[in-house]
From TrEMBL:
InterPro entries: Mab-21_HhH/H2TH-like, MAB21L/cGLR
Entries under Pfam families matching the protein: Mab-21_C
Domain Mab-21-like HhH/H2TH-like: 249-326
Top-level taxon of the source organism: Eukaryota
Name the UniProt record assigns to this protein: Mab-21-like HhH/H2TH-like domain-containing protein
Coiled-coil regions listed: none
Length: 675
């Protein structure tokens, strides 16, 4: 075969390897993104009934900005017990046993309802979602399992569209802790790949049962697909640079050459991943080097071509399952075969027409000259980690709101628990919880007629420790604490420090980072926890236990705003405010007490500008704070307008209606004094 390889393959492979580095597939970027997703998964599982994991391209870091891969989130239900054999069932416990028959396709099972060693009959079919199969067994129906009626159904997933180029797929599955019997021969097939250590790790992860049946089965509504997603993710993480870039290159080729002609379902990323797994199993490891990248891509294309020709794509773990069933047949099979044959005939020249992330133009320029063009150096593709940062920042905020909404004893226990977890988790969340705990203690002290200095000192220590949690959240709570104690100069110093740290690189937790921010992060080579502290501005969340450390407007919002799905994202018993708005509010209050009129009005102007020119997650909180400042200034007409805007955005269950009542009361008092 080596005699048929064009002489330029080695040179083009090295150049392609270099170009892929420039679009965000460098090893350091790859592992930063993987670590961010691991952190996100751990944050999501700290306080969740259904453990959630990100799978697919985002978790594997096998995507680029041009591929625009969706986010695949899978949650499994730990309370449902699934076993593979009767012997492993527990007595007097409701369980499911994986069963199959002559009509069940390979790679799929049914779940028979059992108690102890005995099958259960069917009662109330509509409520318990159980149906009798052809053999009279009571099995769990997979159709519409845990379906969210507000989302679009996409196979077994509920799809939520975020914007034109991004969507999230949520899948609810069941977990099987043991290795599936149908995949028992997988270990025996492997000689060179993967290693025995990886085989052991993969078998320990078990499998998932996804609620989707075989597309050609008459009992597809009763079948569950066996998915070894954990094992696949581990295998992809073990790819070396060439294997990793070969897989991403196949995905780019699939998207830009196959999809426009054959449609979206003909060839999927999962088919490409399976092809790489089989190629690694059948070739020596010495082949997978940077100078052979193009050769490895074409080897995989030839394998795909053979599968399409035979109409059979074997699952990597369960080869008896044909993953082309219901997808590649008839004219689609003919078109797909023609496209793959055409690509192979071109001997790599198709890469010059690959527009994904400008791979073709970049490669063409690189093949013409040995020097990099300055225009392409600017477009480094570092934004490929941007979405991982976006997801992680939102996960940290969600975890903080979920974990901090507890009583004092549970908060103390949580901080102790975090000290025993992964170091990154400790540094990110421990400080956030420390701020919440310090504010909780301070609130209890300030509520008492006789203040306990020792407890107040402890609260101050906790708030001081938590000030470096991120750019804003911890420091803003500390500044609010100083204001409550009339320590205005100390509050001013903290607020000034926040302003200094709030550079144009800082992003809010719900904002996609800019290219400049990402370049700054990569140049500094920061750890995940460190870039959170330097670049992410989390909003401030107050809970009922912190009532004496928060502004009155937020207290009203906490107790009176409910069902605020249009303009607010706060959970019940919680009041949140965007960081920029709260920063300018505290500046106003501080300068008001210090008598600095010009500074005070500048803070008010900044607050107005942010409120009406920036996207805010908690707009009604911002409007409430602005209205309270205007009332404090005696600008009742302007305050009335702001509160009317808030009521127009949400006319029910809005704390603004109480502020309107207070405003009218103050206005009448003022009229009486003037008379």
């Amino acid at each position: 075969m080596e005699g048929n390889i064009p002489a330029y393959y080695s040179d083009v492979s090295l150049r392609l390897f270099n170009v892929l580095d420039k679009v965000g597939l460098r090893e350091d970027i790859r592992w930063k993104r993987i670590n961010m997703m691991l952190l996100r998964n751990e944050l999501a599982s700290l306080d969740s009934k259904f453990p959630r994991q990100i799978f697919g391209s985002q978790a594997e870091a096998t995507t680029t900005p041009g591929l625009q891969s969706d986010i695949d989130i899978l949650a499994y239900i730990p309370s449902i017990n699934v076993r593979q054999s009767i012997q492993s069932l527990e007595t007097s416990v409701f369980s499911y046993i994986m069963v199959s028959d002559a009509h069940t396709p390979p790679g799929y099972v049914k779940l028979q309802w059992m108690v102890g060693y005995s099958p259960l009959p069917v009662f109330n079919l509509e409520c318990n979602n159980h149906i009798l199969d052809a053999l009279g067994r009571s099995v769990l129906c997979s159709r519409n399992f845990f379906q969210n009626n507000q989302s679009e159904r996409h196979g077994p997933a509920d799809r939520k569209v975020i914007n034109k180029s991004l969507s999230m797929d949520f899948v609810t599955a069941l977990r099987v802790r043991s290795w599936p019997c149908q995949a028992s021969q997988w270990e025996k097939r492997n000689i060179n790949y993967p290693s025995q250590a990886n085989i052991f790790l993969i078998k320990e992860t078990g499998a998932l049962l996804v609620p989707v049946g075989h597309p050609l089965s008459p009992e597809s509504h009763l079948e569950w697909r066996i998915s070894i997603s954990y094992g696949e993710k581990l295998l992809v993480w073990q790819f070396n640079s060439t294997q990793y870039k070969c897989y991403v290159s196949l995905k780019m080729i699939k998207k830009y050459f196959v999809k426009p002609i054959c449609g979206e379902k003909a060839l999927s990323s999962y088919h490409c991943k399976t092809c790489v797994f089989y190629a690694l199993q059948s070739t020596p490891s010495s082949l997978w080097q940077p100078e052979n990248l193009l050769l490895c891509v074409e080897l995989c294309l030839r394998t795909l071509c053979q599968w399409v020709k035979s109409g059979y794509c074997p699952n990597y773990f369960i080869p008896e399952e044909n993953m082309f069933d219901g997808k590649v047949y008839g004219h689609i099979q003919v078109q797909l075969l023609a496209v793959l044959h055409d690509l192979l005939r071109q001997e790599g020249r198709y890469l010059l027409r690959l527009l994904c992330d400008d791979i073709g133009p970049r490669l063409a320029r690189l093949c013409q000259t040995s020097l990099f063009d300055s225009v392409y150096q600017v477009q480094d593709g570092v934004e490929s980690i941007g979405f991982s940062i976006y997801i992680l920042a939102g996960s940290i905020q969600t975890a903080h709101k979920s974990l901090a909404c507890r009583d004092l004893g549970n908060k103390i226990g949580l901080v102790k628990k975090l000290c025993c977890t992964q170091k990154t988790i400790q540094t990110v969340l421990e400080m956030l919880c420390s701020s919440s705990l310090g504010s909780d203690l301070a609130s209890q002290c300030l509520a008492q007629a006789l203040i306990d200095p020792e407890r107040l000192d402890i609260a101050h220590e906790l708030l001081t420790f938590g000030r470096s949690s991120d750019v804003t959240s911890g420091r803003l709570k500390l500044a609010a604490f100083y204001l409550m104690q009339d320590k205005f100069v100390m509050a001013e110093n903290v607020l000034h420090q926040i302003q200094e740290n709030y550079t144009y690189h800082v992003i809010d937790y719900n904002t996609y980072p800019t290219k400049e921010t990402l370049c700054d992060i990569l140049e500094k080579n920061l750890s995940t926890a460190e870039f959170v502290r330097q670049f992410i501005a989390l909003p401030v969340c107050y809970f009922q236990s912190e009532i004496h450390c928060m502004p009155k407007a937020l207290i009203l919002k906490m107790f009176l705003s409910r069902g605020s799905h249009i303009i607010d994202a706060c959970p019940s018993q919680c009041a949140c405010v965007d960081p920029k708005v709260f920063l300018h509010y505290l500046e106003y209050q501080c300068y008001f007490r210090l008598g600095k009129t010009s500074h005070k009005m500048a803070a008010l102007d900044n607050m107005l500008w942010v409120l009406f020119n920036k996207h805010l997650e908690y707009r009604d909180s911002a409007l409430s704070l602005l209205a309270s400042c205007l009332m404090q200034e005696g600008m009742y007409t302007n305050a009335w307008k702001v509160l009317c805007i808030s009521m127009w955005l949400q006319n029910e269950c809005n704390a603004a209606m109480w502020q309107i009542a207070f405003l009218i009361n103050d206005a009448f008092k003022l009229l009486r004094l003037r008379q």
